[in-house]
Amino acid sequence: MELKSFEKPEYYVNRELSWIKFDERVLSEAKDKSIPLFERLKFVSITSSNLDEFYMVRVASLKDQIHAGYDKPDIAGLSPKEQVKQISQQTHELVHSQYSTYTRSLLPALDKAGLHLITEHEELTEQQAAFADRFFEDNVYPVLTPMAMDSSRPFPLIRNKSLNIGALIAQKDKKGREVLEFATVQVPSVLDRIVELPSEKEGVRAVIFLEEIIERNIQKLFLSREVVCAHPYRIMRNADLSIDEDEAEDLLAEIQKSLKKRQWGEVIRLEAEEKMDKRLLKILKSEFDVKNEDIFFINGPLDLTVLMKVYGMDGFEQYKSPKHTPAPVVEFMNDKDIFEVIREKDVFLHHPYMSFDPVVNFVRQAAKDPDVLAIKQTLYRVSGNSPIVAALAQAAENGKQVSVLVELKARFDEEHNIVWAKMLEEAGCHVIYGLVGLKTHSKITLVVRREETGIRRYVHLATGNYNDSTAKLYTDCGVLTCDERIGEDATAVFNMLSGYSEPKRWNKLLVAPIWMKNRFLKLIEREAEHAKKGQPAHIVAKMNSLCDPVIMSALYYASSCGVKIELLVRGICCLKVGIPGVSENIQVRSIVGDFLEHARIFYFLNGGAEEIYLGSADWMPRNLDRRVEIVFPVEDEDIKAELMHILDLEFKDNVKAHLLQADGTYTKQDKRGKVLVASQMEFVREADEKAERLKKAEKEPKRVFIPAEPVADE
User: Which of 441, 460, 530, 598 does the annotation list as catalytic?
Assistant: First the structure.
């Protein structure tokens, strides 16, 4: 396959700029007035949270490249310096749009809904001001630690992502001249940032943010001095950990040490109140060593992730989407043993529409079952009080062989995962930290059971993490199977992770980083060959991100051969559509809805002998080249039909789908005169109906067939 002709920079979009387009799609949901008001608040909060991580990791990485003198252009022809310049411009526009949505659209709408968000303490009525001052004295003042900077005290350490109030304090020097000194106080994260005030209008609740109460009372922290001005600010530091695994004697200790560095990494972004005093700003700019393009002047409260807390306030249920309860999985709505159900047939799970309970129960039952000899599992991100981790610990205490790969390098979950790793080790589990230089991102559980016919292996493979909390928010797919060849592959995966046993071949699984990419390229090329022969050729792929240069070149080649390519890419997509002779046969859509689209599904027509795969990997260099990932074929015809239905419905979505245009923008479809299809809500309805039908069938009295009496021959 000749891919060189498809490698021109003008055929591609920069990865970081494509991500900004994704965050714009998230923000567009906040602007959509057809969405319940409090759900719109959530989307503004998510936009902020996304942007924080983007700066701490992606922008930080680019700045590291600039400092190192690295100037090689990316796939779209942009050097790190050019990328940072364009990112700065576009993120400033994004933040301006975000705050415009908040102040012009959401605040007035909240007022009408009976929630008055007081944005500045100067707006407080006399009664509210008295309440706020009392609240400060009783609850806030004892917690605060004001820090000043002078000749004897250096500039204090300001923690990453913390909200602070900077102030200028006036005092007289030895000659009686007035000088200004810098002081700062951190808004304590241990206190609720939302403070409810006495309401002065019937049916209207009033709230104010904690930083406004502190700012109003800041003089009380510096009694003998005059506070000239006080303004909130917030910084973002480089949080991209660099760990030399080859040199690290103890990976766990090395990561613990590196985590502390996050608090004093390079400052890469400063958010400051728009009306901040120029003298105060000058000090912050100098001490943090930030350039003008990395300063964001904010017209409103800093850190809008706080809106998730506003969403969580009691009441206002009429302004929120109804809470979704995952439907029970039909195959397990009986008294059968979980292993018996899996022996009968592979079981498909579609979260969050179907309950995550079968996955938890699979591990729990294995932990208790006297016939289970071993449990092996990969853990990437788990919930705060994970029932799966508890079950694994119980299994080890019950004397079973338990091997758990805990991925310590799961970004921003490192601390969390260290705690689980230590707990599992104490319970007697064999804990593995993965392969040097690679993250293990696979989602796999293997249960080895002794049965009458011999040893049988039960396997759970999935597209999402073993996290019972996110399983209610992320859309993911999984399969429970006891297919013998998949069981053999699962054993080989864990042997590879725990030792140096690398299999020569795999029965069914596509495993990264060595085998998966080539297999995908062959599957794409096979479709291109069918198209060149004039046969129908079709690729459908659903993933989180698409930015692998070799895969994208292969898709361009296949498109140029006449292959119909339909892509569902939630986030980053570096590929362009509509390029004459290159990508005219490629369609890209992104669904941003109530649930975060997280499943990876890959379909190849294969001349009518259709192949469908599920797995943990996106088409990104990090997934295909630098991680242990698993993609697995789905061969059960019923499950294949389910997956085809999922893809079909998502391509019919005209409510939450954004379509990529040839100019690089994303637009929603014109819905006028069309039947509205919101795929996520359809999946909710279908899962509920399926479970309800089975419940009704169980309640109906069983009909007993009584044969008629035979008529005697006359």
Answer: 441
pTM for the full model? 0.92
pLDDT bucket at 712, cuts 50 / 70 / 90: very low
| Element holding 195 (H helix, E strand) | strand 194-197
What is the C-alpha to C-alpha distance for residues 459 and 708, in angstroms, rounded to an integer?
A: 48
Contacts of 339 (CB under 8 A, 6+ apart): 365, 369, 449, 458, 482
Burial 69-90 (b: 16+ CB within 10 A, else e): eeeeebbbebbbebbbeebbeb
**The pLDDT of residue 243 is above 60:** no
Q: Which residues contact 147 (CB under 8 A, 6 or more apart)?
A: 153, 156, 183, 184, 185
| DSSP string for 542-607 | EES-B--HHHHHHHHHHHHHT-EEEEEESS-B-B-S--TTTTTTEEEEEE--SSEE---EEEE-GG
Per DSSP, the three-state class of 88 is: helix
**Torsion angle of the four alpha carbons 353, 510, 648, 532, in this order, in degrees rounded to the nearest 10:** 180
**Integer Cα distance of 328 and 338 in angstroms:** 14
C-beta atoms surrounding 240 within 10 Å: 17
- The pLDDT mean for the chain works out to 91
Separation of first and last alpha carbons in the chain: 82
- The packing angle between helices 387-397 and 414-426, to 10°, is 20
**227 secondary structure, DSSP code:** E
Mean pLDDT throughout 95-104? 97
Active site residue 460: no
Q: Tell me which residue has tokens 């928010």.
A: 473
Share above pLDDT 70 across residues of the chain, in percent, rounded to a whole number? 92
**pLDDT for 714 beyond 70:** no
Residue 356, helix vs strand vs coil: coil
Q: Where are the alpha helices (DSSP H) in 59-151?
A: 60-67, 80-100, 107-112, 126-135
Residue length, the chain? 714
pLDDT tens for each residue of 679-691:
999 999 999 998 8
Q: Torsion-angle region of residue 35: left (phi > 0), alpha (psi -120 to 50) or beta? A: beta
pLDDT digits (tens, 9 = 90+) for 427-445: 888 988 877 778 889 999 9
Burial class (CB in 10 A: 0-12, 13-18, 19+), 453: exposed
Bridge partners, residue 323, by sequence: none
Encoded amino acid at 240, one letter: D
Residue 606 CA to residue 83 CA, distance in Å, equals 39
Characterize the bridge pairing of strands 401-406 and 430-432: parallel
3-state secondary structure of 648: helix
Per-residue pLDDT band for 711 (boundaries 50, 70, 90) equals very low
Cβ neighbours of residue 323 closer than 8 Å, sequence gap 6 or more: none
Number of Cβ within 10 Å of residue 243's Cβ equals 15
Contact 679, 647 (CB under 8 A): no
Query: According to the model, what pLDDT value does residue 105 have?
Result: 97
The residues pairing with 182 across neighbouring beta strands, listed in sequence order, are 149, 168
Say whether pLDDT at 410 is over 70: no
Say whether pLDDT at 710 is over 50. no
User: Per mean pLDDT, which range of 131-135, 320-324, 436-440, 497-501 is the poorest?
Assistant: 497-501
Instruction: Delineate the domains of the chain, giving CATH numbers in brackets.
Output: 1-112 (1.20.58.310), 120-299 (3.30.1840.10), 330-505 (3.30.870.10), 512-698 (3.30.870.10)
Predicted local confidence at residue 262, as pLDDT: 56
Spell out the long-range contacts of 249-252 with Cβ–Cβ below 8 A and sequence spacing 24 or more. 251/408, 251/433, 252/408, 252/418, 252/421, 252/433
